[in-house]
């Protein structure tokens, strides 16, 4: 079928549209839209529509076929009939006209899928790195370009138990109580590492008793998973924070099912990375998360070695310990490591060889091969089925609810809080120990600050007790 002027209509894929946008940028310097459209063998109206939808095309590029499953018109129509029936929509016909409009509305073009499932297409990666990414980044400074991603963490796992957990994906059940999901987010310069969000199974672990200050944010979900509601709440709070700073930022995330699209945001532009390619395209996956886990594991190894030498019974590692360890590990990651990982993901030009060295400087872990990477395949979210989507549509679920296993079976110990007076004695003993080492100036300064803080709390408590005695 021919369009006006004898130009044939074409079914344009997302890749075609991206190539058109790139060619237009190159030619628009000295040619008008009509001339460029003629060179591309396109109707002027089509070119104008593509230009008008430039941001939408770039942001949603390469998000189709996330699961790499072959789909045709009959399958889509059959599934649409099933969904309509279950939602009590009687007037849906699923005609040939409907499927054609559906394909046109969503820019779907049927093509043969070649290669293995979930394989990464080098051409798509090149198209993203060379064409799409530079266009998205060009209006933002490196300080305002962020990447966020979740990872699973077997937080209690000591080296002597690692074989039990090897390659465990841990989709639920008993092992979910041994796992946390952690959301990390940083900008491209490493100058702003956001506070970690940790997702645990229990809403109120016993170890949280009497604790008022936490090193990171903590929420609960009955499988310790990231969910759409948790992500929306997190990103909306982040959006509000940037709004107060009068700052607009760019945030890249993967196509995880727990990352909903079309979230109304004012100061954050949310961009989804191409599916099945985050191992090469996501900065956090280029070494940042690996270094974070290595630093966390190093702390566990040091604790493990200390317990081997100690004559006192070891205190079980609990969720609160894990929050402190993982937050400390996050704080220790340098800006250079982060910048190198963004370079490796093609967000910034330059050499990234220092990334590999950053992932090797952990001699304490050499005695435990495979220990640092033991939970690299752990699931952090669930793929929602049609059943779950329909159920949520009819009656949204409470994602923070706790199932019957969570608190009753919580194994965390409730260690009594040390009295301030006793703690001051320990600080003094620590100061004597630290002063016996060379280059201890900075550590001594930290101990002095802790001592001053404890003294201020002790004086406040003494005053309160005197007032209470007077009232009595």
Automatic annotation (TrEMBL):
Q: Provide the GO MF annotations for this entry.
A: DNA binding
Looking up Pfam families in the UniProt record yields: CENP-B_N (PF04218), DDE_1 (PF03184), HTH_Tnp_Tc5 (PF03221)
Ranges that cross the membrane: none
User: Localized where?
Assistant: Nucleus
- List the InterPro entries hit by this protein, alphabetically: CenT-Element_Derived, DDE_SF_endonuclease_dom, Homeodomain-like_sf, HTH_CenpB_DNA-bd_dom, HTH_Psq, RNaseH_sf
Its domain of life?
A: Eukaryota
Protein name according to UniProt: HTH CENPB-type domain-containing protein
Name the source organism.
Aphis glycines
